[in-house]
Amino acid sequence: MIKIAKRIVELFPRDKFTEDPFRILICTILSQRTRDENTEVACEKLFSQYSGPYALSKARPEKLYELIKASGMYKQKAERIVTVSRIIVEKYRGKVPSDLEELLKLPGVGRKTANIVLYHGFGKPALAVDTHVHRISNRIGFVNTKNPEQTEMELTKLIPSELWGPLNGAMVEFGRKICLPRNPLCNKCCFRTECDYFHETYKG
After folding, report:
1. Are 133 and 109 part of one and the same domain?
2. Any catalytic annotation for residue 196?
């Protein structure tokens, strides 16, 4: 399993980037239920007008609508962004907390978002489990779990911490290019001989 995880990271790398934790947090909120390209447009527009938590904490949500419209669910996301910004300013003196439990207290922040912030914003070992990581881990046979949180708990027991952060981005790329949600390209996959799904599907 560790060997396969390392190979996925090597073959489908996403460069590690460390940015302002607040920008990572807000962009991850914007990324929920939308495509990466839509998130990028919304983030660029938003941060071109609002530089950080203090500015956003004073904004009226409706002022953000047009800026983040590309991300979808923009009214709900605008409310959440302003609320989160106010909490960060009032409770954390304008600094995003670098602790998982504190991040999870922020409205709309689940484990996936919190772990993305910890890894990309603070460089801490953290495994963000999204639909790609959950699906692929179960499909290959790393784990046998029912939801992303269970997958995260199991994977962090089985895989070295230095792979946690890189594995998320690598599995996202692997899931988009080869291990598709429907009709995975098993004939192009170099892991097929070690994959539970391949053996179950093509055993005949």
Report:
1. no
2. no
